[in-house]
Every structure is written in structure tokens, then in C-alpha cells.
Design goal:
Order of helices and strands: EHHHHHHHEHHH
Strand content: under 5%
Number of helices: 10
Radius of gyration: 21 Å
Structural class: mainly alpha
Shape: elongated
CATH class of the domain at 128-202: Mainly Alpha
Helix content: 55-70%
CATH architecture of the domain at 128-202: Alpha Horseshoe
Length: about 200
Amino acid sequence: MTPPQRSKAAVGAVPEVQPARSRAEPSLARLGLLPLAAFVIVVARYGFGASFTLAMAAGAPLVLLFAVAPVLAARSRRRFERGLGMALARGQGGELEALLRAARAFRWFGSPGEVAEKEGLVASEAGDHARAKEAYARAAEGWRGPAPMAVELGFAHACFELGEDAKAVTSYRRVLAWEPTMRLARERIAQALLRAGLDGEG
């Protein structure tokens, strides 16, 4: 049995060499837990006349969830990534949508940029390049500084598949500025320029 081939969308999706990562924006769902805990405490104390101890106990689960949310999100992300690798190895990219839906802690408490990047990858594997482009564009906004190269590369792939050659060339050239030896990016630039009749200089 011959080993399954990697899909076009997956090729180069996780580059071997990446620039220094910017800091990801935090999860808004997690940030909202502390104000919600404070609201619960105030309502319990002054709305229902609970003792201070009982009011604090009412808000404690939300405070605890705030503390452990990053751990839960990281574990959920790792499970998704393991499932992703196995599904792609089996050539079953159709499983990815369900895998991402099952990664609830990652989707709820993970960085919006990281979650959107995974959504872009899933959409690419499903052949929905318009949705992939939109997801990668959201992913690029989820970082305090330049997004990881995988985000730029995913956006470039989506634009290339949609025939948006000028955008694809621009993004592939940004990727090459980080990783000059990436053959796929150079090939895609040449194809896009030829397809669009653009000047390949510069």
C-alpha cells in the first residue's frame, strides 16, 4: 500500500523555519470570566443577601476557570493537532471539521489568532478557499505584531487557489523574505505571474 499523498493545501502549511513569533491576542471569553465572577459575587451578596463567604464561593468557579483556561486550551489544541496529523496521513481531510468542533476548550479559550489559523487550514483542506482566505485574514489580526509565517502562507495559498494572483504574489514574497529557500512559494509566484500576465521583476 502506497503512503497517502499530502493534499495541496497541506503542503507547506507548517514551515520548518518560522520568524520569531509575536504575542497572540488573548481569548475574549477568558478575559470575560473575571468580570462575570465579580458580577456573580455582587448579586449573591447584595441581591440575595448571601454572606460574604457564600458570595465569594459563588464566584470562585469562574475565577478557577479563568486560571486553568490556558491549560485546558493548550491540551485541547494538542489533541486537535494530533488528530489533524493522523487524518492528513490517512488522506481523510474531511474529518478535520469535526475535530475542530470537538476542540471546544481551544475554540473558547485559545488565542483568536491561533483558532482562526486552524479554521483556515480546515477550510483549505475542505476546498473552501474563500472561507480559508477569510479565516487567515482574521488570524493575521490576532497577533500583537507580525503573524506567524504559517498564517501568511495559508493566506497566500487561499488567494492563489481563488485566482487572486496579485495578493498571492504579495503574500508569497513576504513568506520568501522569512524563508528564502521555500521552493513552493517561488513556484507559485511564477505560476501566478504567468497566469495574470504580471511583471515578475521586483
